[in-house]
Amino acid sequence: MGVLVEPFPPDVREYCDRHDLMPALRESGWLVQKYFPQAQRISAELVHDPDADADWVALNVEGDAPPQAILAHDAAFLDEWSATIGGHVLDRLVVMIYPADDGRS
């Protein structure tokens, strides 16, 4: 099972501290592991969208599962995730789940 990679990059930690996101980020990592046990790597990065002039933390999840297996658990994950972390976080934290790069691309 994947684990949330800490320590976080300095820009992620600073952003999370400034917006009180660290508890939500850690809880998100636990929920990812609950719903996607095939996760191999879970990491966080600060993303800037110049078009929207907005920043957020992306929790990037790589797993050894086909897309249909990811989709099978996605709705239940999103329901619990949005209820657990609270609405004040939803515009500052996203979870991105990807199939692991197998080196064939």
Feature tags:
globular; 105 residues; 3 helices; single chain; alpha+beta; three-stranded mixed β-sheet
What is the chains' assembly state? single chain
| Fraction in beta strands | 25-35%
Distance between the termini: 24 Å
Arrangement of strands in the largest sheet: 1-2-3
- The computed structural class is alpha+beta
| Mean of residue pLDDT values | 86
User: What value does the Rg take, in angstroms?
Assistant: 14 Å
Shape: globular
Unreliable spans: none
- Spell out the helices and strands N to C: HHEEHE
Determine the fraction of residues in helical runs and give it as a percent range.
40-55%
Q: How many strands appear in the DSSP assignment?
A: 3
Largest sheet: 3 strands, mixed
Number of helices: 3
Task: Write up what this structure looks like.
By secondary structure, the protein is an alpha+beta fold. It is built from three helices and three strands. The chain has a three-stranded mixed sheet, covered by helices on one side. Strand 1 (39-49) and strand 2 (54-63) form a beta hairpin. The chain is globular, with a radius of gyration of 14 Å. The model has no long low-confidence stretch (mean pLDDT 86).
Quick summary of this structure?
The protein has 105 residues and is an alpha+beta fold. It has helices at residues 10-19, 22-35, 67-85; strands at 39-49, 54-63, 93-99.
SSE topology sketch:
Elements: H1 10-19, H2 22-35, E1 39-49, E2 54-63, H3 67-85, E3 93-99
Parallel strand pairs: 2-3
Antiparallel strand pairs: 1-2
Helix pairs in contact: 2-3
